[in-house]
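Lab meeting tomorrow. Please check the following:
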Amino acid sequence: MEEYDNNINNKPEAAQRASLAVEEEKLSFFEDFKRRLRRTKTTRWIRFAVVSLLFCGFVVWLGNPWVALLWLLLLDIYITAYIPWTWWKKSDNKLLRGIMAWVDAIIYALVLVYVIFAFVGQNYKIPSSSLEKSLLVGDFLWVSKVLYGPRVPQTPLHFPLAQHTMPVTGGKSYIENPQLEYHRLPGLRSVERGDIVVFNYPQGDTVLLAAPNEDYYMICAQLRKNGVSDPAAFIAQHPERFGKVISRPVDRRENYVKRCVGLPGEWIEIRNDVIYINDEPLKDARNVQYNYVIPVSGPIPSEQWREIGVRDEDHGPVPVKVEYVPFSFYDVPLTAEALAEVKKWPQVSGEIVREADCGYFDMGGVWPTYQSAPYGWTRNNMSKFWIPRRGVTLHVTTDNLPLYRRCIEVYEGNKVEVVDGRVRINGEDNPYYTFRYDYYWMEGDNRDRSLDSRYWGFVPEDHVVGSPMLVLISLDEERKLFDSGKIRFNRIFTNPNPDKADAEANGWKRD
């Protein structure tokens, strides 16, 4: 064989390949296999060893021995090359070699990004003010998926840089089949009270393409309120307003970010905006905001609002006038510190009151209104109820069914019906149900401008993505590119949840 190799080296390249192909045909599989091993350079063996060690650790973490079969693919890529992965390198066409070199690099980068985004962490941008002032609109965060344990992708075939829609071209960024069962790898810990959590929007399973930012179930509830007996049929009959109705798998739904205030198995109640956990009041985060009605004698400039951290979209360009209110006013979210400052302003012409106490606004429309529950709850007052916990059995009645029906029916895939005043689950007249998942109660720190659990209920554990660990960069979207203050330098590489570091002082017990 040594003599053969020396002879080959003296031939032109094309002749070498032809002669080598003829010689390979004469070898048995095992002889050819050994020859491929011998001709592999030491540096490539080292790279293969490093990749193999990382892959073995990943398989152990994944807990699925079948994935170990992919090691044979790595063996072929790095060592044996039965599949001609680098066929283009032997081409005489320089243009082809140049193009394929870029394609090879892009594919490698996409695979790497896919693995990192799926199992390690991902960057997210804060699009709304529901967590102001803890997180600001324009914050770019690094969200750790390792903290709670990454989910094995339930929709494995997807473009790694898009959540559900392809950039530029539009259309789905994922292939719906196959769909894998929910499975979470071991993490560092579970979700704790006070954590800021990124999760898939629970009611994002049904989406209206013409109104993708509107909640399908809330629209249905509003249509019922307006006298429409069959909202689903009404929506289907009006494609010009709602567009096509589509469904999305769990891990391809919109990402939301809120603060966890209620844990599995706890009793929660809201009284006059105060959250009670197991009958104990929960202390607010330091930057929590509530809306205040501020009577004024004249307009307040935007820059004056900005000085106390109020965005333009949160106060509006001019005071709002309401016909049945005898003065002009602003309805603005403020922290306790900002409220104290506003009270000193000369434009304020009367007593500042909490939005929930002024009587001008409807506080209703909260969960579980979309299931026609006659609870009479408002966003600042909700009676005591239980947060489902994995493995715990609940006696399901017609009274509490509106609270837990979506958990049992949609999130955990059972059939629920009421027959003769009794709840039947999967056709059985046995109104006791044992939950498969843990559930959480999430709220925004900007309490009166946050679409959170008060409007759509519990967050199942299989929807949890991760927790923000770092603010990468922060851009004020209300300022132009070269304006002073466009880049919030004081937020770069900061902790996005400083309250959690002082969890005990906040009354957030670690369970």
User: Anything to note?
Assistant: The longest helix spans residues 94-119. The chain is about 30% helix and 20% strand. Residues 1-10 have pLDDT under 50 and may be disordered.
